[in-house]
Amino acid sequence: MKAVTALWLLLRGGAHIARGWWTIRTRFPTLPQAEREARVQQWARQFLRLWRIDLQVNGQAPARGPLLLVSNHISWLDILVLHAAGFCRFVSKADVQRWPVIGPMATGAGTLYIARDSRRDALRVVHHMRDALARGEVVAVFPEGTTSDGLTLLPFHANLIQAAISAPAPVMPVALQFIDRRDGRMSTAPMYIGDQTLLESVWRTLTTPGLRAVVTYGAPQSPDGRERREWAAALREAVGALRSPQP
Predict the structure, then answer these.
(1) How many CA atoms lie within 13 A of 157 on its CB side?
(2) pTM higher than the cut 0.85
(3) Helices (H) then strands (E): counts for the chain
């Protein structure tokens, strides 16, 4: 029965993705920015509901910027979860832009792309992030640079933090967790690391009932007098402190 249910949810999710792609291609060019943001958040929340994933938001999602969000990174679901909690512009690896269907959707949602193995491209993206922050936008990054197991935090890379210093704009630490709502323990079902394939992670997520995504927003930190490497380390500590201890 789990496999049958998962296949049904996979089909429903595919249809929802197709509707989102069509909306971005046909409606977004004529919509004001505020309406685009509301549509993205609504679409993400509907996606989580379709796949039976609860959303719990601790703290207040920022309604406007300038603000840089820094979060730990566990799964391909992270972007959807953060969009469902509150709209923000993500910085994502350049490969995503070339993905069928998902690429155009990410672009329509305002994603900034970075070639992570290029220092020159990182500088270009920092400039675009700085400009977005200067326009009063909320921008989100995963400073670990890759997904982790959710139990530990990888070191935070400091390059993209420079955008908040240059803008200048405050930075808000954000913690992501996936838990089993039946016992409150962390769930590894959505985890996407190492040699795992995306399909394996998706299938494991769909065959695991009782998932809850928890987003916890911390207090924003001012850039005044900050040095980016020290600030990255302090933000890593803040994100770690926001995560709920497991029973």
Answers:
(1) 15
(2) yes
(3) 8, 7
Tokens of 69: 């969000």
Average pLDDT over residues 14-36: 92
| Cβ–Cβ under 8 Å, residues 89 and 112 | yes
Give the whole-angstrom CA distance, residue 6 versus residue 118. Answer: 39
As given in the structure block, the two tokens for residue 151 are 């139990």
CATH number for domain 2-242, candidates 1.20.1280, 3.40.1130, 1.10.8, 3.40.710: 3.40.1130
Sheet (strand 89-93) strand order: 54-58, 211-217, 171-180, 67-71, 138-141, 89-93, 112-114
Contacts of 211 (CB under 8 A, 6+ apart): 52, 53, 54, 178, 179, 180, 181, 187, 189, 190, 205
CA distance 72 to 219: 16
Instruction: Please report, for the chain, the start and end positions of each structural domain, with discontinuous segments joined by +.
Output: 2-242
Kindly report, residue by residue over 142-200, the tens digit of the pLDDT: 999 888 877 889 999 999 999 999 999 999 999 999 999 988 899 989 998 878 888 89
List pLDDT tens digits, range 201-236: 899 999 999 999 999 999 999 998 899 999 999 999
